[in-house]
Design brief:
Helix content: 40-55%
CATH architecture of the largest domain: 3-Layer(aba) Sandwich
Strand order of the largest sheet: 2-3-1-4-5
Structural class: alpha/beta
CATH superfamily of the largest domain: P-loop containing nucleotide triphosphate hydrolases
Radius of gyration: 18 Å
Strand content: 5-15%
Low-confidence stretches: none
Shape: globular
CATH class of the largest domain: Alpha Beta
Distance between the termini: 38 Å
Oligomer: single chain
Order of helices and strands: HEHEHEHEHEHHH
Largest sheet: 5 strands, parallel
Length: 171
Amino acid sequence: MESTKLELLAEQLMDAVANGHKVLVFVNFLAAIESISVSLSEAGIGYVAMTGATRDRETIVNRFQNHSDCKVFLVTLKTGGIGLNLTAADTIFIYDPWWNVAAENQAIDRAHRMGQTRKVLAYKIIAQNTIEEKILQLQQIKKELFDNIISADGASLKSLTEEDINLLLGK
């Protein structure tokens, strides 16, 4: 095990699989997929992985969706966040937070599709006293700014500062 965070994820994956769940794990870095893959292999847990370099996405998705021995789907957030139906999963882990919470939500929505018959639980694994906490703070600030902009109260728009607008636009 490389880190406490990886140990925690491995424990959670083993528990979920032991209780009959299929799991999606979204990551931002290829090194995380490699580390998690080693843990799953050592534990004897069947899994598939998808990155931007993956060519035959349909075969990988079908294996996860339709084979009972394939319990975990490891996928990069950008690769797996769009265009996939992964309703076999009912448990989701965001291993690395992303600056844009909408990208995370879109990824989580891969399991919330027509055909989903179970309650879906999603978790973010955040390491304390790291940049990940700052990413969560930034996500919250962006959400509050967005909520203010789309609210019916025009006064909210007038109270936006240049810094707020730059934050929203990513400048």
